[in-house]
Amino acid sequence: MATWLMMNFQDPNSFSSLFLIWLHDYNMMILIITVLLIMYFIFLFFFNKFSSRNLLHGNLLEITWTILPMLVLYDMALPSLKILYFTENINLFYYSIKTIGHQWYWSYEFNYKGKSFSFDSYMISNNELFFNEYRLLDVDNRLILPVNVPIRNIISSMDVIHSWAMPSLGIKVDAIPGRLNQISIFPLRSGIFYGQCSEICGMNHSFMPIVLEITKYKWFKNWLYFMMN
C-alpha cells in the first residue's frame, strides 16, 4: 500500500498493473528525451548558434518536424492500445462477483453453483479501529479473493456515479447507475490491499474504502462455504 512521502507506484499485484507501470516508465522516457531535445535547441537559438533564416524555412525542416512527432506519438500509442485491449479482454474466469456502489458504501454479491449471497462493506469508524487497522481505509467486511485465479468483477451503482479503484491491481472502473461494467482480476500474490472510490459521489465520498484480502484458494473456498451456509 502507499506510505507517506511515497513518490512511486504501489507494488504491482497483477499483470495489468505491471504493464501499466511499464507503459508509464516507457512514455516518461520518451517525454524526458523530447523535453531535453527541445531545451537543447532553445539553448542553441538563444546563443545564436544557428541562423534563424536557415532553420525556419525549407521543405526538409517542415517534413522533419511533421513526421517526427507523428512517429513519436505512434510509438507511444501502440503499446497503450495493446495494454488497453489486454485489460478489457475477459475470456476465462472461475468466479464472478458483482460490486454495487451506494452512498456511501460498497456491496458485493457472489453467485456460485446456483447459490448466491451478498454482504455490505462499510468503513470502520475511528472509535472502532484496532491498533493494526488503518484510519479511513479499513472496512468491517473485506472482499475475499483467491490468489492466481481469474475472476470477473461486474460493477454498477444504485444511486450516483462511483468508481471502484484498486491501485495495486491497476484497476479503476466507473460504477454507473443502470449500466454494467466489467473487469478481470488476476491477483499474483496474497495479502491485504486497499483502494477507495475515485469518483466524487457526494458528501461522504472519502469514506467508502475498498479492502481486498487475497488468500490461498483453499482458504477462499472455506470462506465461500461459510458465507453460503
UniProtKB/TrEMBL annotation:
**Where is it chiefly localized?**
mitochondrion
Topological category with respect to the lipid bilayer: Multi-pass membrane protein
* UniProt cofactor(s): Cu cation
GO cellular component, alphabetical, reads: mitochondrial inner membrane
The chain positions of domain Cytochrome oxidase subunit II transmembrane region profile read 1-91
Which chain regions cross the lipid bilayer? 26-47, 59-77
Give this protein's Gene Ontology molecular function annotations.
copper ion binding; cytochrome-c oxidase activity
Q: Name one GO biological process term.
A: ATP synthesis coupled electron transport
The UniProt catalytic activity note for this protein reads: 4 Fe(II)-[cytochrome c] + O2 + 8 H(+)(in) = 4 Fe(III)-[cytochrome c] + 2 H2O + 4 H(+)(out)
Q: Entry's InterPro entries? A: CcO_II (IPR045187), CcO_II-like_C (IPR002429), CcO_II_C (IPR034210), Copper_CuA (IPR001505), Cupredoxin (IPR008972), Cyt_c_oxidase_su2_TM_dom (IPR011759), Cyt_c_oxidase_su2_TM_sf (IPR036257)
Domain of life where this protein originates: Eukaryota
The cofactor note from the UniProt entry for this protein is: Binds a copper A center.
User: Where does it live in the cell?
Assistant: Mitochondrion inner membrane
The residue ranges of the Cytochrome oxidase subunit II copper A binding domain are: 92-226
Answer whether the UniProt record assigns the keyword Transmembrane helix to this protein. yes
Recite the UniProt keywords alphabetically.
Copper, Electron transport, Magnesium, Membrane, Metal-binding, Mitochondrion, Mitochondrion inner membrane, Respiratory chain, Translocase, Transmembrane, Transmembrane helix, Transport
Its quaternary organisation is: Component of the cytochrome c oxidase (complex IV, CIV), a multisubunit enzyme composed of a catalytic core of 3 subunits and several supernumerary subunits. The complex exists as a monomer or a dimer and forms supercomplexes (SCs) in the inner mitochondrial membrane with ubiquinol-cytochrome c oxidoreductase (cytochrome b-c1 complex, complex III, CIII).
Q: What does this protein do?
A: Component of the cytochrome c oxidase, the last enzyme in the mitochondrial electron transport chain which drives oxidative phosphorylation. The respiratory chain contains 3 multisubunit complexes succinate dehydrogenase (complex II, CII), ubiquinol-cytochrome c oxidoreductase (cytochrome b-c1 complex, complex III, CIII) and cytochrome c oxidase (complex IV, CIV), that cooperate to transfer electrons derived from NADH and succinate to molecular oxygen, creating an electrochemical gradient over the inner membrane that drives transmembrane transport and the ATP synthase.
Q: Belongs to which family?
A: Belongs to the cytochrome c oxidase subunit 2 family.
Annotated protein name in UniProt? Cytochrome c oxidase subunit 2
Instruction: State the species of origin.
Output: Auplopus sp. SJW-2017
Give the classification, highest ranks: Eukaryota, Metazoa, Ecdysozoa, Arthropoda, Hexapoda
